[in-house]
Specification:
The complex is a heterodimer. By secondary structure, chain A is mainly alpha-helical. Chain A has 15 helices and 2 strands. In chain B, about 85% of the residues lie in helices and about 0% in strands. The chains are: A mainly alpha, B mainly alpha.
Chain lengths: ~325, ~45
């Protein structure tokens, strides 16, 4: 019995040692990250690492081609850059370029105002038309694919040289005749007598309607996506509660579609902001080509312009943001 | 039990058909505005 006990004790010791070894291993595993030992990563961390690895080419490209030039323009906007035979000659002049852009240059201010007068009605019209078209396209079954393809066609063509040819042909075409045709309409004449500026804006929109419609390709797709995600049971419930189509539109469709409208607005502003017909964009391009101190001025124009576009996007964000009602219990 | 008013139903069906046709009309008309620059380029 004694022998048995001793052997049992010995066995127990071995088991205990084995357990303590395991625990040590476990401890090592746990405390591995403290000093020089390999850190065990969680599943989420490993997933994140893989994600960043896949994103790496884009990150490198973004840093080299976007972030660094972006920061460089801030510096350049405070300098006078001259292109000489030996290279670029950069001279720090403080806020000189900004003062010149706002108070001395006669082109920048009017171009900026022209851009604002263009972007606000254009964005509004693009959003309204694309929403209506998406709503109608969502309601049909026959010819759905064909019509959607036609409405998406501008997105494919717009990126190519075809679009520039279309702009050229529209600008050299019978613009004056079209303007005269629109001002002959009785309603336009009525509006003109009340507010000539508003009438001019309306005529401008109708005159370039085909151009404006060409910006609605992606907004239509985004709106269709949003409309298809709305639960049909909501509509059914509203109909059972005897809500009419107008009420359903304002109480169900529009509140649900609002976040998408925000995305569409930002996208449209960015699209119009970088478009070649934009007067400020043209001014920046001309200033960039100017070798005698033009690069600094171009950077200043670009910065003022970017800030104004950001302000417009901020306004759009405030208008379309999701205001959640906070219940207060007191 | 309430009888089904078939004339009303027929009217509703007709209204729905007219509505669908008008949607198609609007969409096809606007699609021509989209295609107009391309057609003019080709011609």
């Amino acid at each position: 019995m004694k022998k048995d006990k001793t052997t049992l004790k010995g066995k127990n010791k071995d088991v205990n040692q084995a357990i303590t070894k395991d625990l040590d291993l476990g401890d090592n595993k746990i405390s591995a990250g403290t000093k020089g030992k390999r850190k065990i990563k969680t599943y989420k961390q490993r997933q994140n690492r893989m994600g960043y690895l896949f994103m790496l080419p884009w990150i490198i490209g973004f840093v080299i081609f976007t972030a660094i030039p972006f920061l460089a323009t801030i510096y350049l906007s405070f300098t006078e850059v001259r292109q000489t035979v030996l290279g670029f000659e950069i001279k720090f002049i403080g806020f000189g370029n900004y003062i010149m852009a706002f108070f001395q240059n006669t082109d920048f201010g009017p171009a900026l105002l022209e851009f604002l007068a263009m972007i606000i009605p254009y964005t509004f019209v693009i959003i309204m038309i694309s929403f209506v078209l998406a709503y109608l396209l969502n309601r049909i079954d026959f010819l759905r694919g064909t019509l959607r393809t036609i409405y998406f066609l501008p997105v494919i063509i717009m990126s190519g040289p075809v679009m520039s040819q279309i702009i050229e042909s529209s600008s050299t075409g019978s613009e004056g005749e079209a303007m005269r045709d629109f001002t002959d309409i009785f309603i336009v004449q009525m509006i003109e007598s009340y507010s000539p500026k508003f009438a001019n804006m309306l005529v401008g929109i109708f005159d370039e309607l085909s151009m404006i419609l060409w910006f609605t390709g992606i907004p239509i797709i985004l709106f269709i996506n949003g409309l298809q995600k709305i639960n049909p049971s909501l509509y059914e419930a509203a109909e059972i509660d005897s809500a009419n189509a107008w009420q359903i539109l304002w109480k169900i469709t529009i509140p649900i579609i609002k976040p998408i409208a925000l995305v569409v607005t930002i996208f449209t502003i960015a699209q119009l902001g970088t478009y070649s017909t934009n007067p400020v964009y043209d001014l920046i391009k001309t200033a960039t080509d100017n070798t005698s101190g033009g690069l600094g001025i171009a950077a200043t124009y670009a910065w003022i312009y970017s800030l104004i576009v950001l302000v417009i996007i901020g306004v759009a964000f405030v208008l379309f943001r999701d205001r959640k009602k906070v219940r207060r219990f007191y | 039990m309430k009888k089904i008013n078939f004339s009303k139903l027929r009217k509703a069906y007709k209204f729905k058909t007219v509505l669908k046709l008008s949607i198609y009309f609007v969409l096809i008309c606007i699609s021509f505005i989209y295609l107009e620059p391309i057609i003019s380029m080709i011609s």
